[in-house]
Amino acid sequence: MGKIDEAIEIIAALGYPRTQQNERSGLTLLALVQLKEEGSWQTLSEPLLGVRAILDYCRNDYNKPYAENSRESFRKETLHQFVSGGLALQNPDKPSRPPNSPQWNYQIAPDAKQLLLTYKTPAWDEALAAYLSQIGSLAEKYKAHRDLAMIPCRLPDGSLFEMSPGGHSELIRDIIQEFAPRFAPGAQVLYLGDTGNKGVVMDLAALELLGAPLHERGKMPDAILYAKDKDWLYLVESVTSVGPVDGKRHAELSYLFRNVSAGLVFVTAFPNRQIMARFLPVIAWETEVWCADNPTHLIHFNGDRFMGPH
């Protein structure tokens, strides 16, 4: 039996469903422990690997060249399940790493590595039984560790939700908890985007009533707030590296929300003025700029009046 088949046998013994008992998952496990065909299960490594590195391992060490578009299959159909089951960890070096980071990585879980070291030895059966008896608690332990890095945000109605870790989510939280009470008091949160879970908050009924688009998530701003007393709809972009309301984005949002009856207020939010300074030359007129490090102030990029629809 070759190493790929042995890895699949281990995956099956750990109770993963048949959809994970395949070559892709077997190779992923072998990559996580850096085990080559001529190697031994008693000599394993535990590197931090991104999906690209795992694909390279499949090609270079097992002559299994996977196409570039298979990255999502490795991520969503193998690694996600390995992480959920406690077999692998994601970003153990930095749990707060944002989902779109090129440094996103995976590592074999310490308990799983200790189990794998007993494979093909007399200690395997006993070690496997002990591992399986505690795998539920292990998975919960690792999940709790991941959850600690999530960004909590409290909505105006008092409800709490969590977003993926990272500066982008932190800024969205500040928009809701710092910008909204000051410059959109009493406004209802109709939409919040999140890099790890697009559309964390989406009030479809309210958006439809206002004539806002419902099926354009990829084009939506990061936050949409509605102030009923003024009949203003705030379209807010959270900018930590890219994506301010420049002339092009202003035109896109204006067209996307062309059927909205409420007045449109365009806002670009930055973490601080240092980041804002990089984008000042492209900020569109008739828009607003807010910085989280100076939450009580607003910059008006317009000439005829202060904040409001134009």
From TrEMBL:
InterPro entries: BsuBI/PstI_C_sf, BsuBI/PstI_N, BsuBI/PstI_N_sf, Restrct_endonuc_II_BsuBI_C. GO terms for molecular function: endonuclease activity. The keyword Plastid does not apply. Residues 3-139 form the BsuBI/PstI restriction endonuclease HTH domain. Residues 152-303 form the BsuBI/PstI restriction endonuclease domain. Keywords: Endonuclease, Hydrolase, Nuclease. This is Restriction endonuclease. It comes from Massilia aquatica. The lineage of its organism: Bacteria, Pseudomonadati, Pseudomonadota, Betaproteobacteria, Burkholderiales.
